Amino acid sequence: MAWLSPQTVKSALLGHSAIGLVVGALMYLLCLTGTLLVVAEYFERWQQPLIYEAPAFSREAVTQAVADGARRLNAPAESVWAVFPTEFLPRGHIAVVGNNGGEQEWWFDSDGNLGEPPAEGLAHLLRELHYYLLLPHTWGMVLVSALGAMLVALILTGILAHPKILRDAFHLRLGRGRRLEQIDIHNRLSVWGLPFHLAIAITGAFFGLVGPLVLIAASAFYDGDPETVYADVYGDDPVLEATVQAPGIDSALDWMATELPEGDILYLVVHHPGQRSQFIEIAAELPGRLAYSEIYRFASDGQFIGSQGLTDGPTGRQVLYSVYRLHFGHFGGLPVRIAYLLLGLALTVVSVSGINVWLAKRGGRSRVNDLWSGVVWGTPFALAVAAGISLLAAKATIGAYVLASILAIVLAVRTADETTARLRLQFLTGATLLAIVTGYMWVYPMDKLPAAVLTLNATMLLLAMWWLRPLQWASRRTRGNTACIGKKSF
Known about the structure:
Layout: H1 6-37, H2 40-47, H3 59-72, E1 77-83, E2 92-98, E3 103-108, H4 122-132, H5 137-161, H6 178-192, H7 194-221, H8 226-234, H9 249-259, E4 264-271, E5 279-285, E6 294-298, E7 304-307, H10 315-320, H11 323-328, H12 333-362, H13 367-392, H14 397-415, H15 418-443, H16 451-467, H17 469-479
Antiparallel strand pairs: 1-2, 1-4, 2-3, 4-5, 5-6, 6-7
């Protein structure tokens, strides 16, 4: 390739590096947002802290809320969902889906009165990022799945490429140079969290592959009908013809209380309300089962029809219905959530340190270093900005995140020094979080806030203090006349 000019070769190398950086940045974003989604319910409660909360709601309240929700939709309803309180989200809400695909939602109180709708704030942003990378949903999920498959390949090849990886599991060379330090952090965290990382990667790849696999199976075995595939895998809906009547929610809940007192009801759905084909479904989490739930079906009058077999049906069906809980750690209560948070943070550090090692091995520096610094330290800043904006205008949360991300990358590139850019972005993130918590506590009295919200605010405050440390150190140096705050220190 001697005919290529040095400038062309340099441009090609920069392009190659940029592609690697994009993949690394997306992996980092998925790991970070997935970690935060482990406690997604905390963000929902933080977004709207004064919504009525209770560990349980009466059946009268549920029946009233379902009826009011169906009446409020200005179109025929396809289904009305009543979502029950859980340990991490002790609130009830109604979702009504219209025949034309429109949807409306409301929280409801102990009397079944519908209140304000759930706000699409920070939790919504995290889901859109983690599930779809802010892309159109079909393409976004395929890309996320592909990244999950790449993570599986990275884990397996990483094991094969390091035959001494287990023997060196506690060999950590901190302070021995950036490259060795990053290598050891990358390898040690990879080993310590190996089973978790592999489970997350496999289940993450599964989510996006479901759609394409269903289409392939439908084309090959089901005359091109994907609905038949889903029916065979997850069970088909009952086909009923009954007298039009009010849904027998009381009878269905009576059956659940009598036959399955150990089950925790997650939601109740009235399908085709006000029609002869009306029927009821109740999803309940069963103790000792990893499957998301079992679904029990009832006729229009509330008489039991049967279950969907998600917890005691074919093994494949049980496995498929367990993927969500395994991926997000929504089982086993608070200890599992805490473990998933720590392991998820470890995987996030692994994704960052892997790119850091690659950059260190390249030698020298280029614009790629600045871009990477802008992504790594700009993402927490952008999420902090989005959190603050979400409290003022929930629908502007995604736009605020995108704009803040762009500004962070521009700042890092213009700074042209990774250390300085990192300190500046950390300071901006800490200042943003401090402003959010201060304003939040000014608006909402502490005695009105749930413990989960106070915990989240305390965590944000601690992060703010941590990221504002460089300012404190710089102030000490200035007072001692030993250094000044310049480009290389702040």
